[in-house]
Write a structure and sequence with these properties.
The structure holds 2 protein chains of 2 kinds. Chain A is mostly helical. Chain A contains 15 helices and no strands. Chain B folds into 2 domains: 247 residues, P-loop containing nucleotide triphosphate hydrolases (Rossmann fold, 3-Layer(aba) Sandwich), CATH 3.40.50.300; 70 residues, Anticodon-binding domain (Rossmann fold, 3-Layer(aba) Sandwich), CATH 3.40.50.800. The chains are: A mainly alpha, B alpha/beta.
């Protein structure tokens, strides 16, 4: 590995540790830095330890994992579809999750659904997972029949449009209270993941990230196009199946637990390619894992508006922070790849 | 030639698509150390044949064997160690460097991470040097010219180090020197390393000069033979005849059929000078005829027209042609 690449990796790792700590420290209540270590390393109990253990630490962990997952699934989609605009949601995953949640919330008026299912997080999570899974199965089914990635991309987008339209229909016929719950879900929230959810979310996302780390060699081959990839020994059909499955696992689970978070998945791979000046997946895949975590942690810090009582929706902050970064990279390099 | 010389053979092969069968009952074989050029008109199925032979596209029926083993029993990984290809597919790996793309040719041999060993590195540098791209080794693919991109993909096929190499239109984007260079390189490679090389091309001149054998494809069948045999038995001529071109058996190339000659002159002088002067005149419908009323005498840098003892002198063929064109009626209509 060239020295420059190693240095950038070390720098990113240091930045990650720094923003992770900052994310725990900063918020409506500022926590002094020495408190963190005394709380985490010793069994010291006070008001701070409660905030750190029950609120800040799970939130920071969620931001790290979800950021990495979205960035990796974005990178996988961009490579699979050879399209710089592809992101984790192009296959209709978030729309599927939205539809599941919308159905659940809007149906909450119906007497046959126990009310605790709707108000508790688990109900929403199950609904989102089932919705995402349903779309995933449809896309996978089509991917075995359609041999061409561009057609598959279009099919995924069409599924997204249909489910998006259904969500709109549901929104227009539902009562304002239920609508508000749904709209809040669509804004995304990292603090929704408490420890009991973490035990489910963590293994799912971690497994997805681990599998993705086995793929860089094959992903590099895919950059040559499917025919060339086959000619040098890639089983393209199987690889495509694995990529879609991993993407759905990563983006589906992340969306189910935190709501759709825009932008990270599309933007981070570009930022990482720009920083490392490379498209080699052996570099940019681990790079995207670090970059995604860093960017979402930064977004979370901003969204907490440190020192104030207010918080902003993470979905908006991620776009407001991330978009200028992309524009800056394009402006600096004249285009995305050089 | 012994049977062990045959690397790849196809029997009763039928190629095409479900809706459209292209060619049936193909029997062909590739031998070690030979360069075979696949020629044929546009759309006759050259690329389909190549894709079918290397297993990128299923055949409709028949068998393809490589080293006496059916390619349908091999997985992608095994196939990649036997056949390498250069396709006409547009490669969109704009953000990879030349070195990175060529190194993907080592894919079948590297570990799960795709780590490059020193041995791989040597093979990659050698291949890049063979296609003369050393100075662009760390350049981005996007910044190369079409010809350079083509050569990168050829280098990728070379590092794959397979007994069979298929190239679909490898010289399409290359200029003349590079085209010659690539053909010479493939010839040398076939002879020195016993590789069997099949390439499709539109350039008949080049194919006739460099191929050990030709596969000439038309709508019904594939003619196989040395270029010389296929020229002498008229198959080349018959397949490429057209109203605009005619095949020159003597030189083995195609020349444009000019409009029929309406006027005639007689040209005297050095054969070489006469040849080039007539080429220009032919283009304007002026032919050569003994005892024509107009005589042209060619000397070095000097063209003299003589008609009824009136002489005009010109310093270039361009001036000569312009004069004849201007004076067309004056010169030719008077019997």
């Amino acid at each position: 590995m060239p020295l420059r690449t190693t240095i950038i990796f070390l720098l990113l790792l240091m930045i990650l540790v720094f923003v992770f700590l900052m994310d725990i420290l900063l918020g409506s209540i500022q926590i002094p830095i020495q408190k963190i270590f005394s709380v985490i390393l010793t069994n010291h109990h006070d008001g701070y330890s409660e905030i750190i253990w029950q609120f800040r630490l799970p939130k920071a962990l969620t931001a790290t994992l979800v950021g990495s997952s979205l960035a990796v699934s974005g990178l996988l989609m961009q490579t699979l579809f050879k399209n710089p605009l592809a992101g984790p949601y192009v296959l209709g995953i978030s729309s599927g999750a939205s539809l599941g949640v919308a159905l659940l919330i809007m149906a909450s008026g119906a007497s046959w659904i126990p009310i605790f299912m709707v108000t508790s997080g688990w109900g929403q999570i199950f609904a989102a997972i089932i919705g995402a899974l349903l779309i995933l199965m449809l896309v996978l089914l089509f991917s075995t029949r359609i041999n061409d990635t561009v057609s598959l991309l279009i099919v995924g987008m069409m599924f997204g449009s249909i489910t998006g339209a259904l969500v709109n229909v549901l929104q227009s016929i539902t009562n304002p209270d239920a609508l508000k719950i749904f709209v809040i879900w669509t804004m995304g929230s990292l603090s929704a993941v408490s420890w009991e959810y973490m035990y489910i979310m963590f293994p799912m996302l971690f497994a997805g990230l681990l599998i993705s780390l086995l793929l860089p060699k094959q992903l590099n081959a895919l950059l040559l196009g499917e025919n060339y990839a086959k000619s040098i020994g890639v089983t393209v059909f199987r690889l495509r199946f694995i990529i879609i499955l991993v993407t759905c696992l990563l983006a589906g689970a992340a969306t189910a637990f935190t709501g759709p978070i825009a932008f990270i998945g599309v933007a981070v791979p570009h930022i990482i390619r720009g920083i490392f000046r490379s498209s080699d997946h052996r570099i940019i895949l681990p790079g995207s894992i670090l970059g995604g975590a860093i960017l979402l942690l930064m977004c979370d810090i901003v969204s907490q508006l440190p020192g104030s009582e207010y918080t902003l929706p993470i979905n908006s902050v991620s776009a407001i922070i991330g978009a200028p970064i992309i524009i800056w990279i394009i402006f600096k390099n004249k285009n995305l790849y050089s | 030639m012994g049977n062990q010389q045959i690397v790849l053979s196809a029997n009763q092969l039928c190629i095409g698509y479900k809706q459209r069968k292209l060619l049936d009952n193909i029997h062909i074989e590739l031998q070690k150390g030979e360069v075979v050029c696949l020629i044929g008109k546009n759309g006759c199925g050259k690329s389909t044949l190549i894709r079918t032979l290397c297993g990128l596209q299923p055949s409709l029926s028949g068998s393809i064997c490589i080293n006496n083993q059916s390619i349908y029993q091999l997985n992608h990984h095994q196939k990649a160690q036997l056949i390498s290809v250069v396709l006409t597919d547009k490669v969109q790996a704009d953000s990879l460097t030349v070195f990175e793309i060529v190194s993907l040719g080592r894919y079948p041999y590297t570990n799960w991470m795709g780590s490059i060993t020193d041995e791989d590195k040597n093979s990659i540098s050698d291949a890049i040097a063979l296609v003369h791209l050393e100075h662009k080794t760390h350049e981005l693919y996007a910044k190369l010219s079409d010809g350079e991109k083509q050569r990168v993909m050829i280098a990728k096929a070379l590092t794959q180090d397979t007994p069979v190499i298929f190239l679909d239109e490898p010289t399409a984007h290359l200029d003349l020197p590079n085209r010659m260079e690539i053909m010479a390189l493939l010839q040398k490679l076939a002879k020195n390393t016993e590789k069997a090389i099949l390439l499709s091309t539109h350039e008949l001149d080049l194919a006739l000069q460099t191929a050990d054998r030709l596969w000439l494809m038309d709508e019904q069948r594939i003619f196989v033979g040395t270029p010389e045999d296929l020229v002498l038995n008229g198959i080349v001529e018959q397949n490429f005849q057209s109203n605009l071109f005619q095949f020159n058996r003597k030189h083995g190339n195609f020349c444009m059929k000019h409009q029929s000659m309406t006027h005639f002159v007689e040209v005297h002088g050095d054969t070489y000078l006469v040849y080039w002067t007539m080429r220009a005149l032919n283009r304007h419908g002026i032919g050569q005829q003994k005892n024509a009323p107009i005589q042209v005498y060619v000397e070095k840098d000097k063209w003299i027209i003589s008609k009824e003892n009136v002489k005009n002198e010109f310093s270039s063929i361009e001036n000569l042609v312009n004069h004849l064109k201007l004076k067309n009626n004056l010169y030719f209509c008077v019997k």
